[in-house]
Amino acid sequence: MTRLALNASIVSLIALIFLCLAWELRLAPIHPGGSWLALKCLPLLLPLRGVLHGRRYTYQWVSMLILAYFAEGIVRATTEQGMSQALAIAEIVLSFVFFIASVAYAYRTRPSAQAGKQAQ
């Protein structure tokens, strides 16, 4: 279960980074030719190394950061039409998957869980 949460969080975070870039640069930018809104993917790059290495502390704080992307997805899914709405729904799904996986990973790797495994 821990490995599944780790892999799900890695895949969903990387997919969300690529989605943000593709959305704002090519697929449905706010302005033709791309927009500066593509820079919204930069905060997602900060935790990437810690997520890839399975650092529990990174999972704890990034589970709060990802909620901003979830909120953006909700707002844009309800206010936009067409391709932007579909991309917003994809952002909601990816951020939700990442949130659940990161919370599960942080829970499964807590120190008291590790002590319980060693006692058995």
Automatic annotation (TrEMBL):
Pfam families: DUF2069
Family matches, as InterPro entries: DUF2069_membrane
The organism's place on the tree of life at top rank: Bacteria
Keyword annotations from UniProtKB, A to Z: Membrane, Transmembrane, Transmembrane helix
Transmembrane portions of the chain: 87-107
Official protein name in the record: Putative membrane protein
Organism: Rhodocyclus tenuis (Rhodospirillum tenue)
